[in-house]
Amino acid sequence: MRLIHAAAFALCLLTVAPVGSFAGDPKSDVSAAYAAFDAAYNKGDPKAVTALYLQNAKVLPPTHEVASGPAEIEKFFAGFYANGVTDHKLQLIDAGGDDKVLYGTANWSAKGKDKDGKPANFSGIATHVFERQADGSLKLRLHTFN
Fold first, then answer.
1. N or C: which end of the chain has fewer CB within 10 A?
2. What is the largest CA-CA distance in the chain?
3. For the structural domain made of 24-145, what CATH number should be given?
4. DSSP string, 21-42
5. Chain segment 12-44, per-residue pLDDT in tens
């Protein structure tokens, strides 16, 4: 009888105990993902940036030329580097989501040169959709900005 009670008690504990999860506060998680993105971008390596995206990710820039998948996303970011765009920074506006899918909105800024080759500051607003990976990291599924 004691064995039955012990087994029932153990079963109750398993059903009410929290399941292991990497999920934390969405704002903290997305802020960390933004810091990783800025660090990767500011290395000047399009492969490092591309590694932050899922294989089937999409980037939707203001040019309306959608970049799909690693090769197109890498080419897209290589274009920024070729045009001297540096000092990328994402500043969180808001974030939310659940254990698997998170979103973030941000103000972005970068430095570069205008059409006359003079130093210029660029900025806008971005939206990101992340998917949490088995190791707890976030990878981008969708990235749109203006």
1. N
2. 86
3. 3.10.450.50
4. -----HHHHHHHHHHHHHHHHH
5. 333 343 444 555 799 999 999 999 999 999 999
Tokens 């960390």 sit at which residue? 32
| This prediction's pTM | 0.83
Phi-psi domain of 120 (left: phi exceeds 0; alpha: psi -120 through 50; beta: other): beta
Which residues are CB-neighbours of 92 under 8 A, at least 6 positions away?
A: 27, 30, 31, 34, 104, 105, 106
Give the span between the Cα atoms of 145 and 125, in whole angstroms. 6
Q: What residue ranges do the domains of the chain occupy?
A: 24-145
CA distance 121 to 63: 18
Tokens of 115: 């059409």
Sign of CA dihedral 60, 61, 62, 64: negative
Q: Which H/E stretch holds residue 103?
A: strand 101-113
Q: In what order do the strands lie in the sheet with 86-97?
A: 67-68, 53-60, 138-145, 119-132, 101-113, 86-97
